[in-house]
């Protein structure tokens, strides 16, 4: 049974940092790119970062670029999202998800966050339950 479990969320002050973890079980890590998403209150889910199965490709949204870093340890079945310089607008529920759709040059790679104005969220077959991040004084 595939399972993704996020952890590491919490309350942090603006300018602070958090590292989120995504523990994967029941899936061959080499067969999936992993994405991180955020659901902010009253907003649509947003793709933030994605890392290919080989770690050779990383994608970031404009809101994540320069502040967030995605990494993975396939031997430990773990994916991480290091978040620095957090802002109140980063508040939300953070999810990791597995995508085994796109294969290129020996690895499962990340889709663009949007194609022709539509998100590619439906390419991600397995999702975690989410972890809450609150950025506030």
What's a quick, concise take on this entry?
The chain is an all-beta fold and 137 residues long.
- Distance between the amino and carboxyl termini: 40 Å
Q: What's the number of extended β-strand segments?
A: 15
SSE run:
EEEEEEEEEEEEEEE
Helix content: under 10%
The largest pleated sheet is described as:
7 strands, mixed
Assembly status: single chain
Mean pLDDT: 96
Low-confidence spans: pLDDT under 50, at least 5 residues?
Answer: none
Radius of gyration: 14 Å
Helices, by number, come to 0
> Which range does the strand content fall in?
over 45%
Using the alpha-carbon principal axes, give the shape.
Answer: globular
- Strand pairing plus helix content: what structural class? mainly beta
Pick out its properties:
four-stranded antiparallel β-sheet; globular; mainly beta; seven-stranded mixed β-sheet; single chain; 137 residues
Could you walk me through the main structural features you see in this protein, from its secondary elements to its overall organization?
Helix content is 0%, strand content 49%. By secondary structure, it is mainly β. The strands form four sheets. Strands 2, 4, 5, 6, 9, 14 and 15 form a seven-stranded mixed beta sheet that branches. The protein has a four-stranded antiparallel beta sheet with strand order 1-3-8-7, with no helix packed on it. Strands 10-11 form a two-stranded antiparallel sheet. The chain is globular. The mean pLDDT is 96.
